[in-house]
Amino acid sequence: MRRKEMGISQERLAEALGITFQQVQKYERGANRVSASKLWEIASALKTPVAYFYDGLGDRETASAQRDAAQDFLLSSEGIELMATFPRISEAAIRRKIVELVRVVAEEG
Hints:
Blueprint: H1 2-5, H2 10-17, H3 21-29, H4 36-45, H5 60-74, H6 77-85, H7 92-108
Helix pairs in contact: 2-3
């Protein structure tokens, strides 16, 4: 997600768009639709072309393969253990650091 890649909080993006951070949350979760004009504003605020938000939408085979890989992992013993233990980490900052560590290791491997 572009906002996270840039290290921008939902609050900061909402402020740039003149909306509440709750509205940004709804857009990100897909609870509310994003109008074309708002999408253009979001792209401008995130310094990215509107097309960025459509990358990969036409490639159903890739999306299906990614879902299958994720499901296979979640059903593995490591996935089950991770799903059981990760939520028990109470500090959000520590959970974020673990996610960042996994991302770096995955990119190097």
